[in-house]
Amino acid sequence: MLETACSQCNHVWSVPPSKKGGSVNCPSCGVLTELDGASDTGWFYGLTFGGFAVLGLPFGVMAVIGILNGSMSMAVCSGSIFALAVLVLLFVLFGS
Ligand SMILES: [Zn+2]
After folding, report:
1. What is the pLDDT of residue 76?
2. N or C: which end of the chain has fewer CB within 10 A?
């Protein structure tokens, strides 16, 4: 557990480590307090883009190969999955 102090009333309480780098409401006065410490955004973006690179990009490449080879079913199928992966990526990055 992390210890944090309220900037408003100086109340000190413990918060779960998962809140590190985020913000919590003071249990005493309710003021939103920012927590120190690096957040896990590095991991978040690493996993998001890593997952996209592993799961999404191969379908984008397959779609391009399908188009180049004149195989429209392969292009459309892979392109759809790639578009879905891009949508999920955008949603994860900007949807929250
Ligand atoms: Zn407080």
Report:
1. 95
2. C
